[in-house]
């Protein structure tokens, strides 16, 4: 399968007052046509920075290296006009905060229609009609009335549906959903995931799902990339990864998750001791070594690289047998 | 919304009554006697008494107050002690000048202030921001009257670009009218422009870091739409408040500006009336100013709900 989105050796550093800060280090990802790739990891592991750098949405203080190809077109280093024509039309985003991601002073219909007027050149009326269709598509009841509502008149779940409607307005090739359900109640989350699943089935949209919630991953993803401290440490098909995690960090994540861990009712949840280190602190070591139960001497002196194949892992002492959690 | 409006109107009435009492008492607390001012050289006690009687100055304060309020309520503001003209028509003559001057000044200040504020926010940390900040500081610290005198000295007298003083009614010659008002409006608007600029800059900076701006960028909108539409519309809510709060300063600024440019407006009327102890005129002028202030503030409040839909709904609930 030819990938729609191909990220290769993507590195992001930020210029800060304390010097350069590395956020993402040589990350490579591939997303096939109609595939859902989940990128999981703890807060601060570089998931969102990776996502934002795909369409050049990082602030000016960020320095991005490497390659991001969308259907063969290189996006890193592309001029602003090209990037603008891709954003919202071929690569669309859904963000974590539905409460603040919509502009409070415009109606939701206006904000959805704006995408269509910008990229497709629809008239005001045509954009409004299409906005109503889109609101129906994402499951908003009485869409004809809701289209004239302001964001504050909608609940969090409804707003996130509006965000999704806005994102898929131009039928993008890739939808990047950055923690789309994190800010929502559990009951609302399921509805949003249903909408995303439906879009993939009906429109064939490829989705990059950024999340720290393994329950969401199990629900929606085809493949998973696990990130830790700015690097991809393991990637595999979702069933393979859940059944047979090879990186101790992945195993730890699964053990810390009540939904994904087996025998969750009878077992205590395990936590991973320590915190995610800064990437710049350990250039020549496995970044997980300090927190790793399986660390050997070698781990602190040399950095492991990803293996090749279907199930890739970057670890000197991977878990070989299925773990008992 | 209706309840809100009613409560605002009620507040306005109370404010007006208080303003009336304060100004009535204040005028009479001023040293000096209008009868003396009117009589001029003639200090004959008989003619002084005649004058006092003619204008009701020998009545008790309560009676005078009741006369004033009951007449004002019927639209009769009395006659000027100095000229004998009806105060109503004096105000009708002077008010349009001041209103036009104020509107032009707000217009000038908004265009310059919002424009410079947006530039300062978008070009943060670059020379454009420093220039805008320096200009704002200058605009705030340089007093109106000095700026007005300098403008007359250089732009009117030396270069002859604008008339130094005088006024032509708008309806007799609109172009000449604007030509006369450009300088005064600029001078009067300077301070306001500086305030608006600083406010726009800070609220734009807030808006530009908001999540919905990231959304707008992710939609592939042009910088013009992101800044000029999504960020600016949100910033204007704060700016409108500031303009409303600055109206008092604008009115007192108009007094000084009109004086410098010899415009026959409200400011001139007020200053002349105070010098002459022209009680009816002072009272009427303050009454009209207070009313204008209250009405404009009410309009500003209504303007919010146009800009910010959230306020509309809260008022309905």
CATH class (first level) name of chain A: Alpha Beta
| Architecture per CATH nomenclature, i.e. the level-2 architecture of chain A | 3-Layer(aba) Sandwich
Quote the distance from N terminus to C terminus of chain B.
8 Å
Cα-atom Rg of chain B, whole angstroms? 24 Å
The dominant shape of chain B is: globular
Sheet bearing the most strands of chain A, described?
7 strands, mixed
CATH architecture of the largest domain in chain B: Orthogonal Bundle
Q: Which stretches of chain A are poorly predicted, pLDDT < 50 over at least 5 residues?
A: none
Write the CATH homologous superfamily of chain A. P-loop containing nucleotide triphosphate hydrolases
What does the oligomeric state look like here?
heterodimer
List the chains of the largest interface with their residue counts: A-B, 30 and 21 residues
Q: In total, how many domains does the architecture of chain A comprise? A: 1
Membrane topology (chain B): Multi-pass membrane protein
Pfam family, one (chain B): BPD_transp_1
GO molecular function (chain B): dipeptide transmembrane transporter activity
Transmembrane segments (chain B): 101-122, 134-157, 177-197, 236-261, 281-304
Short description:
By secondary structure, chain A is α/β, with parallel strands linked by helices.
Keywords:
heterodimer; A: about 325 residues; alpha/beta; Rossmann fold; 7-stranded mixed beta sheet; 4-stranded antiparallel beta sheet; 10 helices; 11 strands; globular; B: about 325 residues; mainly alpha; MetI-like fold; 2 domains; about 80% helix; BPD_transp_1_N (chain B); MetI-like (chain B); MetI-like_sf (chain B)
